[in-house]
């Protein structure tokens, strides 16, 4: 019963993060925030999994390091987009 409670909350929050990512595609900042929420829930699930197997948390620290690098890259893309286009709307620029 405890195992179900450990896994149900991160799974529900992960699915809600995916729903927010798919449904909110107007601003880049809101999409980046939902992606960071998804990564945080993946980290939480990885942390629970490694603690249940009595492994060390070295891999989770590597995962956290890469997720911080991903967040910094997303913020740099956001800053460069705001400097070139003036806002973070996806409708204001074209891919081509």
Automatic annotation (TrEMBL):
One of its GO terms (cellular component) is respiratory chain complex I. One of its GO terms (molecular function) is NADH dehydrogenase (ubiquinone) activity. It catalyses: a ubiquinone + NADH + 5 H(+)(in) = a ubiquinol + NAD(+) + 4 H(+)(out). Its EC number is 7.1.1.2. The chain crosses the membrane at residues 6-24, 31-52, 58-82. The keyword Acetylation does not apply. Belongs to the complex I subunit 4L family. Core subunit of the mitochondrial membrane respiratory chain NADH dehydrogenase (Complex I) which catalyzes electron transfer from NADH through the respiratory chain, using ubiquinone as an electron acceptor. Core subunit of the mitochondrial membrane respiratory chain NADH dehydrogenase (Complex I) that is believed to belong to the minimal assembly required for catalysis. Complex I functions in the transfer of electrons from NADH to the respiratory chain. The immediate electron acceptor for the enzyme is believed to be ubiquinone. This is NADH-ubiquinone oxidoreductase chain 4L. It comes from Drosophila yakuba (Fruit fly). The gene is ND4L.
């Amino acid at each position: 019963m405890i195992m179900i409670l450990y896994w149900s909350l991160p799974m529900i929050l992960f699915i809600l993060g995916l729903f927010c990512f798919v449904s909110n595609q107007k601003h880049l900042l809101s999409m980046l925030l939902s992606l960071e929420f998804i990564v945080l829930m993946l980290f939480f699930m990885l942390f629970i999994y490694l603690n249940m197997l009595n492994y060390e948390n070295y891999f989770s620290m590597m995962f956290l390091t890469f997720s911080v690098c991903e967040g910094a890259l997303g913020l740099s893309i956001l800053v460069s987009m705001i400097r070139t286009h003036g806002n973070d709307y996806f409708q204001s620029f074209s891919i081509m």
